């Protein structure tokens, strides 16, 4: 069985897929992966940002451009309780990325809570305006879903959804929420670059599938695993500093520029 990197999906995987924050726990929506001894990613997981429990405020230090951007936000971006619509039985999402378009076909029956959350995130514009593919590990998966605005991350970290039974398998192209343990999925998602069926037993429930892997295969993976295990972005810093941290320290990352429901 493959070893998983720690993603913080709560979000990179401390669990199979968890995000890396200030802490070492699995992130909310992005599972953390722990690779085997030979350096293979572990599970996708999310990690909490430093001081997450104290809900650090984004005030005087917030860059002016970010303050301006918030004026055009959908109300649900800063209030998850406004994003609870049930998704259609099937729908397709188009990600316009810095490398080209990626289409994801979603089947609600596979993972109802996950499909509903993804549908709402796309509808309110969560994945618009430079959402980084911050944890891309060759031979494993590509993880994203931490917002570029720390204020948005602060409110969504607590917006967890219940787990879904695993009805599909984490084969190449399948799309799944990262997590930091039971019932901790929020906004972080990963796309399997290869067959990661070992994640199935870890409760990672796929909700969609990438139509064509060509563009996904070109997403920058040079930074590898995130800090502190690797030299890539530290999930806690992404949560608390947003794109300001990423753009200053990881200039080669690829981004989702816009997400839309096309079917």
* Largest sheet: number of strands, sense, barrel closure: 9 strands, antiparallel
Domain module count: 1
Number of helices: 5
- N-to-C series of helices and strands: HEEHEEEHEEEHHE
Number of strands: 9
The H-level CATH homologous superfamily, spelled out, is Cyclophilin-like
Q: List the uncertain runs.
A: 1-38
Shape: globular
Strand-residue proportion: 15-25%
- Strands across the major sheet, in which order? 3-9-1-2-8-6-7-5-4
Task: Give the helix/strand class.
Answer: alpha+beta
Task: Give me the oligomer status.
Answer: single chain
Helical residues, percent: 10-25%
**Rg, please?**
16 Å
Any guess at the CATH architecture?
Answer: Beta Barrel
CATH fold naming:
Cyclophilin
Distance between the termini: 37 Å
Q: Mean pLDDT, as a whole number? A: 84
* CATH level 1 class label: Mainly Beta
Q: How would you summarize this macromolecular structure in one to three sentences?
A:
This protein is α+β, with helices and mostly antiparallel strands and 263 residues long.
Question: What is the fold's blueprint, element by element?
Answer:
Elements lengths: L63 H7 L19 E8 L2 E8 L4 H12 L7 E2 L2 E3 L3 E4 L5 H7 L17 E4 L11 E4 L13 E5 L24 H7 L1 H7 L5 E7 L2
Antiparallel strand pairs: 1-2, 1-9, 2-8, 3-9, 4-5, 5-7, 6-7, 6-8
Helix pairs in contact: 3-4
Q: Could you list some keywords that capture this structure?
A:
nine-stranded antiparallel beta sheet; 263 residues; alpha+beta; disordered N terminus; single chain; 5 helices; Cyclophilin; 17% strand
């Amino acid at each position: 069985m493959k070893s998983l990197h720690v993603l913080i999906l709560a979000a990179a995987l401390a669990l199979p897929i968890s995000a890396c924050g200030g802490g070492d726990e699995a992130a909310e929506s992005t599972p953390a992966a722990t690779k085997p001894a030979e350096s293979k990613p572990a599970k996708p997981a999310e990690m909490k940002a430093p001081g997450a429990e104290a809900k650090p405020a984004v005030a005087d230090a917030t860059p002016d451009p970010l303050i301006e951007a918030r004026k055009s936000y959908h109300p649900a971006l800063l209030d998850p309780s406004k994003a609870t619509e049930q998704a259609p039985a099937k729908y397709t999402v188009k990600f316009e990325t810095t490398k080209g378009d990626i289409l994801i076909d979603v089947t609600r029956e596979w993972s109802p809570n996950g499909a509903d959350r993804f549908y709402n995130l796309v509808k309110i514009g969560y994945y618009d305006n430079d959402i980084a593919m911050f944890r891309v590990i060759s031979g494993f998966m590509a993880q994203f879903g931490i917002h570029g605005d720390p204020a948005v991350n602060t409110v969504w970290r607590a917006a967890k959804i219940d787990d879904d039974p695993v009805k599909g398998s984490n084969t190449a192209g399948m799309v799944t929420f990262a997590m930091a343990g039971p019932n901790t999925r929020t906004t972080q998602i990963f796309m399997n670059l290869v067959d990661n069926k070992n994640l199935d037993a870890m409760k990672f429930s796929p909700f969609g599938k990438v139509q064509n892997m060509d563009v996904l295969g070109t997403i920058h993976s040079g930074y590898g695993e995130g800090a502190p295990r690797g030299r890539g972005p530290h999930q806690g810093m992404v949560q608390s500093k947003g794109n300001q941290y990423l753009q200053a320290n990881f200039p080669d990352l690829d981004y989702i520029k816009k997400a839309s429901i096309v079917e």
